[in-house]
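TICKET: design request
STATUS: open
ATTACHED STRUCTURE:
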């Protein structure tokens, strides 16, 4: 990463209502185990098949925070992109996601507040069966324009 020049994401003045990004992914056991290890989350619903089989879910599910992590990554890497910061979120998780389910999530610019330097994104996510798994809004501060192109602390971002 270091030494490689990276572009900042779209600035607020370059975004328009309707800009969107869609990503598909599958959460595998290795990612789930890393999350559980990093957070020290011992919820049996996420990994213990015996326990999960006794619940309405019938099998282990993916923590909703991992779904949000994928959404956050889309915002940080694609729309608006590098340099962005999530400042508020209102999301509902309508259906549980199971291990190895194919998930498709879209984010679309729905409002732009140039004066406040805030972009509102509408988020929609569906599983492989077409059922809604997540829906809501996220407010983001797009990257700011660097004050000086001579700044050495940002030499990897232009």
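STATUS: resolved
RESOLUTION: sequence designed for all positions
ATTACHED SEQUENCE:
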């Amino acid at each position: 990463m270091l030494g490689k020049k990276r572009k900042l994401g779209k600035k607020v003045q370059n975004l328009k209502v309707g800009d969107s990004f869609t990503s598909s992914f599958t959460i595998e056991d290795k990612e789930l185990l890393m999350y559980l290890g990093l957070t020290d989350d011992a919820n049996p619903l996420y990994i213990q098949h015996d326990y999960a089989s006794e619940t309405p879910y019938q099998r282990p599910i993916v923590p909703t925070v991992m779904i949000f992590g994928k959404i956050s990554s889309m915002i940080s890497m694609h729309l608006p992109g590098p340099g962005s910061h999530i400042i508020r979120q209102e999301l509902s998780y309508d259906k549980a996601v199971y291990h190895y389910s194919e998930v498709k999530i879209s984010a679309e610019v729905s409002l732009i507040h140039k004066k406040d330097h805030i972009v509102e994104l509408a988020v929609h996510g569906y599983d492989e069966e077409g059922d809604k798994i997540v829906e809501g809004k996220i407010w983001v501060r797009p990257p700011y324009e660097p004050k000086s192109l001579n700044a050495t602390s940002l030499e990897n971002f232009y």
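CLOSING REMARK: Helices lie at 29-39, 49-52, 64-77. The mean pLDDT is 91.
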